[in-house]
Amino acid sequence: MSEKTASRLSTRDLTLVALFAALMAVCAWISVPVPAPLVQFTMQTFGVFAALMTLGGKRGTYAITAYLLLGAVGAPVFSGFRGGLGVLLGTTGGYILGFFFTALLYWGMTARLGESLPVKLAAGALGMVTYYAFGTAWYLLFYARTGSPVGLMTALGYCVFPFVIPDLAKLALALLLARRAGKYVG
């Protein structure tokens, strides 16, 4: 088999990528509404972690990219059954876009260090830091543009601190799913 053929995704791979992109959409729709300016609690990050840990870095990154592209063209895959560039360019769009950088980080770490449990956990935890950092910077920039700037601690209080423990729980849950389902997805 040539190197070019080996790098292509199989029909099975494409099906799994699509399945996990759909899972992320369903997880985004499961939300607990909270008053503005707080960010909604969703299961979206579980879908991101499940894709990466079950499919691996490469296919997981493709699933996250497919999810983001679906949302960008207007498919209602984000929380509140929303979609479109307006969501991605809105206040919390940076957290959603940060999932892509989380995926790249996860893919890079597992490609270099292997897929052991400690590596997956470290990559997931650093991935959380990545989307929190990207999303918070985006959030601060958005508010600065609207003439209503907020401080870093206020943004972290709205968008990060309330989510750390739930996101760690979602990371653990995704890891359990990946350990169970991984042998069937391989």
Quickly describe the structure:
With 186 residues, the chain is an all-alpha fold. It contains 9 helices and 2 strands, in the order ααββααααααα.
Order of helices and strands: HHEEHHHHHHH
**Total DSSP helices:** 9
Distance between the termini: 20 Å
Q: Level of helix content?
A: over 70%
Overall body shape: globular
Kindly describe this structure.
The two termini are 20 Å apart. The chain is mainly alpha-helical and 186 residues long. It has a two-stranded antiparallel sheet with strand order 1-2. It is built from nine helices and two strands. The radius of gyration is 17 Å and the shape is globular.
Give the helices and strands, then pairings.
Layout: H1 3-6, H2 11-29, E1 31-32, E2 41-42, H3 44-55, H4 57-72, H5 85-88, H6 93-113, H7 117-145, H8 152-159, H9 164-185
Antiparallel strand pairs: 1-2
List keywords for this structure.
186 residues; mainly alpha; two-stranded antiparallel sheet; 2% strand; globular; disordered N terminus
